[in-house]
Amino acid sequence: DTGVSQNPRHKITKRGQNVTFRCDPISEHNRLYWYRQTLGQGPEFLTYFQNEAQLEKSRLLSDRFSAERPKGSFSTLEIQRTEQGDSAMYLCASSTFAAGNYEQYFGPGTRLTVT
Amino acid sequence: QQQVKQSPQSLIVQKGGIPIINCAYENTAFDYFPWYQQFPGKGPALLIAIRPDVSEKKEGRFTISFNKSAKQFSLHIMDSQPGDSATYFCAAGLTGRRALTFGSGTRLQVQP
Fold first, then answer.
1. β-bridge partners, B25
2. What per-residue confidence (pLDDT) applies to A101?
3. Is B45 in contact with B29 (CB distance < 8 Å)?
4. Average pLDDT over residues B66-77
5. B104: exposed, middle or buried (C-beta count within 10 Å: 0-12, 13-18, 19+)?
6. N or C: which end of chain B has fewer CB within 10 A?
7. Which positions in chain B touch A99 (Cβ < 8 Å)?
8. How far apart are CA A79 and CA A64, in angstroms?
9. Which chain A residues contact residue B104 at CB under 8 A?
């Protein structure tokens, strides 16, 4: 399968715990995005990488959230001191570097439940 | 402030019907308008996208109509099938900013 992959697919954690999600983009894609989707809503942008550089962060990305893409390949999203309001589907997407290319391809997501 | 408004919230059509989903945007700088299809438990899948320099684009049974002056665009699904039952999201993108702004989604049910 050459699509975007995300692990784990589901995560249940207790409030206050830290969690980390991983995203593996399509192999030739330089750009990687994280979105959050709550039930009944569209995805909301969190952050974006071009290669290993984090170029944009949403106001939704509080200080408890941190994302990395250390070698310009896979990325991790960590949430510290989780809160019940963090319960959502966390989606990763990737795209190529071609100028004017906006086509983003999404992974299956990681569903986080904070109890 | 919601920048992309999508309607209707839900839609039921009979097999073979032509569901139409509408989106309106506020930021005239948006220059890329994709539609995504999402099945339960899956990530959104890119269906079709349009730029504001064309008024219509067709790919298979899916057609986007774009009205730049009205700041509106819509998705038409020709000869709809039960397998098209899913949630559809419109989105908008802006040159120089890689984030997509999504609508709130339309849950489509195609009855056999």
1. B4
2. 67
3. no
4. 95
5. middle
6. N
7. none
8. 6
9. 40-42
Beta strands A44-50; A10-13: pairing state: unpaired
Shortest Cα–Cα distance, A82 to chain B (Å): 22
- Shortest distance, CA B12 to any CA of chain A (angstroms): 17
Q: What is the pLDDT of residues A22-57, one digit of tens each?
A: 999 998 888 999 999 998 899 999 999 999 999 989
Mean pLDDT of chain B: 93
CB contact under 8 A, A102 and B98: yes
Residue type, A115: T
pLDDT digits (tens, 9 = 90+) for B34-47: 999 999 989 999 99
Confidence of residue B87 (pLDDT cuts 50, 70, 90): very high
Give the amino acid at B106.
Answer: T
Sort out which chain B residues have CB atoms less than 8 A from A56's CB and list them. Answer: 97-99
**Which chain A positions have a beta carbon within 8 Å of B95's beta carbon?**
100
**CB within 8 Å: A41 and B36:** no
* Residues A96 and B37: beta-carbon distance below 8 Å: no
